[in-house]
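Q: My labmate handed me this sequence with no annotations at all. I'd like to see what the chain might look like in three dimensions before we decide whether it's worth expressing. Could you predict it?
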Amino acid sequence: MARTRTKQSTSGLTGGMDTYVRSLTLLRDDVPDLSKYPFSIPALRELETLDFHPQVTFFVGENGSGKSTLVEGIAVAAGFNAEGGSRNFNFATRRSESSLHEYLRLARGTRRPKTGYFLRAESFFNVATETENNSDALAAFGSVSPHEMSHGEAFLTLVRERFSANGLYVLDEPEAALSPQRQLSLLRAMHELTREGCQFIISTHSPLLLAYPDARIYHLSEAGIAPVAYEDTEHYSLTRDFLLNREAYLHRLFKD
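A: Here is what I predict for the chain of 256 residues:
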């Protein structure tokens, strides 16, 4: 697959608004060995340059496709802690991030975010523990430890109370903690925040979140990374077909 710059027009979608992160480029010539992890992941091995939507960009793909690794690399390159939190968080429960961020160059827009957050489902417990020891961070939860809330309640409380205007927010599979109804609540919160000058970069499996209007969606696969329309994602088509043909799907799945 040829490694070409992936670019889509955002004309008419954002009123000409500039973005915090315009694009990323993999500094391929600096990578010591493209055959070693994380560059051994096919989608990352083919990575060259990607452009971000000024408001919402999604990364989708099968488990192991590299979307969470890529989002982690973007977050760390943008100055966030690898396990999550704001730029003021600096802790490591267990260092497990890849070296990808060392070889990513982010092209910044003319605006600078006033705030930001890296929210990832798999290490949110660790961030919640760190939050208990930080009075300013705890204030976003009404001075109540996120450990005293359900996972989903803590996620939404963070988004509603901590996320604010003119921010850069990187989310890794946020649907892991959210019921379908709470995912719709997250969509609503995202819509309000994008109208206040925020930018979101998200990896997800959720067909509900992917429905965000006019978002840019990148699909990671064995063939590389390519933009895809919402209706052409497997997340949409498989969910739709299953709901419309549930008995036939179950018959095939359970057939001896």
